[in-house]
Design brief:
heterodimer; A: alpha/beta; Rossmann fold; Alpha-Beta Plaits; 2 domains; four-stranded antiparallel β-sheet; B: alpha/beta; abc type-2 transporter like fold; five-stranded mixed β-sheet; 61% helix; 7% strand; binds adenosine-5'-triphosphate; binds magnesium ion
Amino acid sequence: MLHSVAAQPDQAFAIDCRGLRKTYPTRPPVEAVQGVDLQVHYGECFGVLGPNGAGKTTTMEILEGLLPATAGQVRVLGRSWDSDAREIRQRIGVSLQETILSDDLTVQETVRLFRSFYRQAWTVDQALASVSLQEKANARVNKLSGGQKQRLAVACAVVSDPELLFLDEPTTGLDPTSRREVWEIIGRLRAQGRTILLTTHYMDEAQRLCDRVAIFDQGQVIALGTPEQLIRSLGGDHIVRFTCAPVATPQQVEVAEEPWLERLRQLPTVSLVEAEGAEIRLACQHLPAVLTALIDLVRQEGRVLSDLVTRGATLDDVFIHLTGKRLEGTPES
Amino acid sequence: MEQGRATADNAAASQNVAPATLPATTRSRTDSAARDSATRDTETSGVGSASSGQAVVDWPILVLVRTRLIEFTRKPAAVFWTYVFPLVMMFILGSAFRSQGNTHSEIGVVTGPQQAELVDQLSDSPELKVSSLSPADGLNQLRAGRIVLLIRPAPEGTVGWEFLYDPARGGGRLAELQISEQLRESHGTLERLPIITTPYSEPGGRYIDFLIPGLIGMTLLGGGLWGVGYAIVDMRIRKLLKRYLATPMRRSDFLLGIVFSRLLFMFPQVAMILVASYFAFSVKIHGSGLEFAGLVILGGLQFAGVGLLVASRAKSMETMSGLINLAMLPMWTLSGIFFSYQNFPEFLHWPIRLLPLTSLLDVLRGVMLDGASCWSFPIELSLVAAWTIGTFSLALYLFRWSD
Ligand SMILES: Nc1ncnc2c1ncn2[C@@H]1O[C@H](COP(=O)(O)OP(=O)(O)OP(=O)(O)O)[C@@H](O)[C@H]1O
Ligand SMILES: [Mg+2]
């Protein structure tokens, strides 16, 4: 390995990867990961966020030892995949994005199979209890709902009582109730002191579960920090969203005009003004002051204000700010 | 403080506390992080979170085999193709080529003195269908099951007749009774001539005898390609192979588990064919049963190797189905499942014999039909061994767990 003793990474990181690159040798080659540095502390729940194709799964699979990296150093639990693969595998739990477990086995049989691969593990009952699936122990996998299948996948990942848990999109495609159930499970696993690395498309999920998040886009980390830090980086805790057209041509405004946006930027405590078509988004610190000033300004200019919504800023706003894209499937508001 | 917590942790561990009930108290987030960094490298056992893990006593390979068996038995289609299909095939082909005439017995009389008179008398019986045959032809027809009994003049130095038939096959004994009856009724001089009965069994001369080892070989071939090959590609497509790879499972356990479970499905499969063909067609193993079993296992392994090889890289069902057909078709048509490859032109025999199924069938038939020892087929055995070792080695070299 290139890695010299002098550059020994900090043992305090559960995951330490530097300069990670992955180029798929397809034609044309796909640079799925383009220089990612990630340090995940022990006991931390770390979220990897990003749109489709951002390189989340690729990064996860390299960290899980399933894919060779094109370049970069990876240490997991202080060890390297080159020399300690089996040892690392004993200590991590993995749930892949798209594994289809065997339909004809029961829940119990499935967990028992995964359990048998480890030196030490929870009992099958313990694993099922940890994902609240005891009453389905004897059900066939093909009789489970999507949420139950996802919980079974988590049970298979945690049956070895791993220190480090990789969950790739644990809630994608689930209905709100099932998502909440999975959140609770992850919350419990986190409370047990496990390190968790999870990917998601859902900003609310990351905000709720994760101590820190990294936002991926096009194979790079474009933002990193606690959800609060990232939201604060917008410069305001509140988001005001509205459309506002001149009275004369209320139907014709497709895109908000730049001079008008510039005047909005002058409003008190406004840190950010963005337009998406006719819709305008302000991030601000002091909501009442901004609203009063906004209404005054609208009246002065003889405009019509419509669809005004205010809310607390979320990671979603950070993401839209950084990429100009809305995450797929993110519920509005 | 942290020290104390860690000790409490270990105490809890030794009591196997259920994780869902006691998590937050046994491991707080901060102390685990501190402990991890402080003690990780000095821990020798390696299994980190000394929380509530229990030593696992299951053998992965046994669990893998058991799981495969469970999965298999829960798939009605797989059970049908594995167990029922070969039997259906056996009955269809077996009865199609079965010698006709269950209502009357077909017998042959070998040319010789008084032959014409005998044929005359016997032909009067509605229950007997008599044909005159040359000595060699008579034996051939008896062997092939076209006649159930052959009458020929008693050996030199004695007078009378010799009756030849296989006591194990129905029909022969019945024909003998029908003949005696007929001779008595005709009150001819022939009745008083002495009769010697000679049990005559020429192993495995009928079509059904030829067919059964072919069907066994065919099921071994199909089992290897579908039961091993297809099953693996299915798991690869479902990303299950990748998921297993993320565990400390030994890859050899997995592959051996697949192969062993395939061998386990195979025993009842072959046994069913043997039992059914014994009761329906009196087909028997004329050679050593042990050698036969050994050959079946060897054949099962050989085709497990072929299946593994075909599955080593395939990433889609379309590719896999194509590869399976590519592997099976030449052997189905050329290797002699349904008819001997001797029917093909001479120059094709060697290439055909190189196919894995051909060698296996040649030895199987030798042992089963001719009662030969498998050691009298050194070339065929070497070929089967070479295919087994070759395909396994190449498959392990090429095998891809994920994409
Ligand atoms: N096996 C592969 N061969 C070639 N290209 C690949 C392969 N796997 C992924 N890619 C490409 O690499 C890029 C990153 O894919 P990746 O699966 O890591 O994204 P992701 O962030 O997990 O997306 P999603 O949210 O849809 O799961 C994509 O452009 C994808 O098309
Ligand atoms: Mg993904």
